[in-house]
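Progress report, Aim 2. The chain analyzed during this reporting quarter is listed below.
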Amino acid sequence: MNAIVRPGVLAAVLAAGFSPLQATTVGFGCITNNTQQCHASQFSANAVVSGSQLNVTFTNSGFGSITEIYLDAPNPAGSLITGLTARSFSAGVNWVINIASPNSLPAGNNASPAFVSDYRSESPGNTNNGVQLAEWLMLTFNLANGQGQTQVNQALDNGSLRFGLHVRALPILNSNSTTSEVFVSTPPPPSTPGVPEPTGFVLGSLGLAAVAVYRRIRKEKQSGPGESAEE
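Predicted structure tokens for the chain:
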């Protein structure tokens, strides 16, 4: 039986292969060195847009407790982020928004460029209320009109959108004491070259299928009337 690839079907398959923009995960770097060892690798933030809001989930896979989180938004003010509106968290965490002590990220001038604390939030009380090992916190920000995942990803890539963490109860190297450390998010690494995007994979598969159909039709024509081409 001859296989026919109709233009309408091809268009539908191509549409199905469309790949939406994905959430971006960023890591952190130390801007202080109170512990004499950088614990930055244990912290991450995942930024994903849902409708007109940006949800950022912070996690801790190691020592200490994240007790304050700050956001440095792109200029001009309100061009990307217009407000910090909500928070949710795992068991063991307690968190409030639009207030923090200190009011600005400690040692923020150590970052390059200097960190500007446009939005702030904290865990009230002692460090046990912060984000500790295997716990998480999600902060929800309102986006300006017309802004979406593309603009958020671009701002994270170029460093105009950054997150700052104040982490307490971190162990000091070769000591039984603990102290605090400050971390600022770093741009995500570039995509690994040579790894096809989902859309590219679909297009490649369609190309192979089209070649196979063409060869079969050609073979059937060459076999003549009344004859059938073998598979």
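DSSP finds three helices and ten strands in the chain. The longest strand covers residues 162-171. These observations will guide the mutagenesis work planned for the next reporting period.
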